[in-house]
Amino acid sequence: MEFYNKTGKMALGSRLRRLSELITEQAGKVYGYYDIDMQPKWFPVFYVLSAGEEKSITQIAQEIGHSHPSVSTIVKEMMKRGLVQESPGKTDGRKNYIKLSAQGLAINDRIRDQYTDVNAAIENALNETQYNIWKAIEEWEFLLEQKDLLKRVQDERKLRERKEVEVVAYHPKYQTAFKQLNEDWISQYFKMEAADYKSLDHPKEYILDKGGHILIALYKGEPVGTCALIKMDDDTFELAKMAVGAGAKGKGIGWILGTAAIEMAKQHDAKKLYLESNTILKPAINLYHKLGFKKVTGEPSPYERCNIQMELNL
Amino acid sequence: MEFYNKTGKMALGSRLRRLSELITEQAGKVYGYYDIDMQPKWFPVFYVLSAGEEKSITQIAQEIGHSHPSVSTIVKEMMKRGLVQESPGKTDGRKNYIKLSAQGLAINDRIRDQYTDVNAAIENALNETQYNIWKAIEEWEFLLEQKDLLKRVQDERKLRERKEVEVVAYHPKYQTAFKQLNEDWISQYFKMEAADYKSLDHPKEYILDKGGHILIALYKGEPVGTCALIKMDDDTFELAKMAVGAGAKGKGIGWILGTAAIEMAKQHDAKKLYLESNTILKPAINLYHKLGFKKVTGEPSPYERCNIQMELNL
DNA sequence: TAAATTTGCGTAATTGATTACGTAATTAAT
DNA sequence: ATTAATTACGTAATCAATTACGCAAATTTA
C-alpha cells in the first residue's frame, strides 16, 4: 500500500493488521488445498492438542495466549466438526477437558505434510527477504515488553520539548512575566510578602544592579519559567524566584533553568549557591536535590514561608 | 510468546495479529496522553483529510485501503465528535463529500507534535532492532503480490513429493502393477489390444529378453508409474507403456520417468527414441514435447489407437 | 429515449477476537 | 463450620473490520 509511505510510522499497527489478514486469508486456502476441513483460527488450539494429551479450556487459552471465551467458542466449533471430545474433570467438576477425537487424530496425521510445506514455503520466502519478519516480530514483542509505546512516545516528547526550550538573560520586556510567574505559585501556596513585591516589581534595582542575574526560560518564544541569582557575597549567590508556569510543567524546564543558573554562577566565579524554600513544595525540593543541593541550617530568612535552606558547593 | 517458537512459521498470521493488536492498543493510549479526542482507527481517514481538501467516501476508502462501509461508519463517528463535515456532491447527488471541520482543523494543528513524537519513538525502536519490521512488512507485501502463499505452498509440496519419488528397474514383483497401471489408462480411453496383453502379461519375454528395459516409479515405496524402452534396432528404443496412476498425478512423475528413460537409453548407446501416442492424450503429448520429442511421420503402428508418432535424437 | 449497466453509499449480517458478567465448584480464613 | 475469596468457564455484549445486499443516481448502450 502506497498510502503507508506517506503516513509514516504512525500507522504501523494498521499496516501489520492488513498483512496479517492477507496471510490468514491465504492460509485458509492452503487448508482447502490439502483437503483438510479446518479453519486457520483453529490452528493454535489444534496444535496444543496434537500431542494427544487432554487439556482444560483455560490451560489451552494460556498456552496459546488467547482469552478463554475465545478458546471456548473455537472448541465448540471443532466439536461440531467432530475434531475434539470434551469431558468434565473428575476431581474438579468445573473443568472441561478437551482432547482430539479419533477423527482429529487422523487429521493430525494428514496435516503433517501441510506443516512441512507451509513451513518450507515461508522459510524460503524469508530467505528471499532482507529483513526477516519473523525475527522482527520477536524483537518488537521484546521491545514493547521492555518499554511500551506510550512510555517511548512520552520520552520522545520530553526530548523534543526540551529542545524547544531556550534560556535567555533578563530583559525589561520580561518583567511582567517575571512577576506573574512568581506571583502565581507564591499566592497559590502562601501569601505575597513585601520582599516579593520589591524584587518582582523592580528586578533591576533589587537584583541586577546588586550584581545578580535573572534567567528566563522561553518555550516556543514565550516566557514560561524564571529564576534569579541574587548576590550575597563575592563567593555566594542565592538561587531564588524559581518559577515554572502551570502550562509548561513536565517539560523539564525547572531542570534546564537550574543547570543554567549553576553554569552562570560558575562563570562568575561563585563558590557556593544558597537557597530557601518550603518542604510543602515537593517537586521543587526534589529538583534541588537532583541538582546537587544539600540541606543546611543557617541564618533565619527574611521570608516567612521559608522552612528549609539548602546549599550547593560549586 | 513462547508458544510461537514451537508452532513454527505456520502461525505467522496469528503472530502478526497479536502484535498489531498490542501496538494499536498502546497507540490508543497515546492519543489520550496528547489529550486528543480521537480513536486510532480514525487516523487513516483523518490523515487523508488533513490536507484540507474534501473527498468522497469511496475515494477515501480507496486511498486508505479500507472497505467503503468502514469509512462510512468512521465518518459517522467523526461527525458525532464534530471533526468533519459532509456535503452532498453538487454535480453528482450520490456522492457524500467529507472534509475536516474547523474543530478538525484545530486538532490537526495540535496533532502534529504527536505525529513527530510517535514517528520518532518508532523510528528509534526500529534502530534498536536488527530486523527492520517496517521494511519487512513492505517486503512481504511485495512477495505475496508476486506469488501468493498458496502458490508457494503448492510448489513446496511438489518439490517435497518429487523427492519422495524413486525410479527403480523392473522386478517380477512389479508385474501386477505394471499391467494394472497401463490397463487403467488404456481402457479408460481406448480398448486393450492383443499386443497390450502380450507385453503386459509377459514383460520379460516381450520386452526385457529382447534387449529392452522397464522402469518403475515408486512413491513412498508403492509403484505409481511405469515406462518401458523396447529395443527396435541397435540405435533405437521405443518409449512405450508410459503410465502414471490416477492418485499420483501432479507430482511430476511423468517427467521423472521420462528423463530417467532418456538417461537409460543414452547409457545403452542409443541414438534415437521413438514413440507412438494419440493426440487426445493431451498431458502426455505435452510431456513428450517438454522432453524434447518432435512429431514425425513414419511406419504404421501395430496399435490401432496410435495417431501420432514422435522421435527424439539423443 | 428507454433500457441496461455501473457507481456511490448506506444498512444489515458476519467474523474473529475481546471485555464484562454470572454461576458453580474449590479453597482459604475466621 | 460457615463465610469469603478465588477459579473455571459459559453467555452476552462489544469492537473493528469485513462481505452481502439494496436503492437511487449517473452513465452507457441499443
Describe the structure.
Chain A has 314 residues and is an alpha+beta fold. In chain A, strand 5 and strand 6 form a beta hairpin. Chain A has 13 helices and ten strands. The mean pLDDT of chain A is 91. Helices cover 53% and strands 19% of the residues of chain A. Chains A and B meet through helix 1, helix 2, helix 3, helix 6 and helix 7 of A and helix 1, helix 2, helix 3, helix 6 and helix 7 of B. Chain B binds a DNA duplex (30 and 30 nucleotides) through helix 2 and helix 5.
- The percentage helix of chain A is 40-55%
Cα(first) to Cα(last) distance of chain A is 58 Å
- Give, in order, the helices and strands of chain A: HHHEHHEEHHHEHHHEEEHEHEE
Strand content of chain A: 15-25%
Number of helices of chain A: 13
- For the CA atoms, what is the radius of gyration of chain A? 34 Å
Whole-number average pLDDT of chain A? Answer: 91
Spatial strand arrangement across the major sheet of chain A: 4-5-6-7-8-10-9
Major beta sheet summary of chain A: 7 strands, mixed
What oligomerization state is this entry in?
A: homodimer
What spatial form of chain A do the alpha-carbon principal axes imply? elongated
- Largest interchain contact: A-B, 75 and 74 residues
Counting DSSP E segments of at least 2 residues, the number of strands of chain A comes to 10
* Structural class determined from secondary elements of chain A: alpha+beta
Poorly predicted runs of 5 or more residues of chain A: none
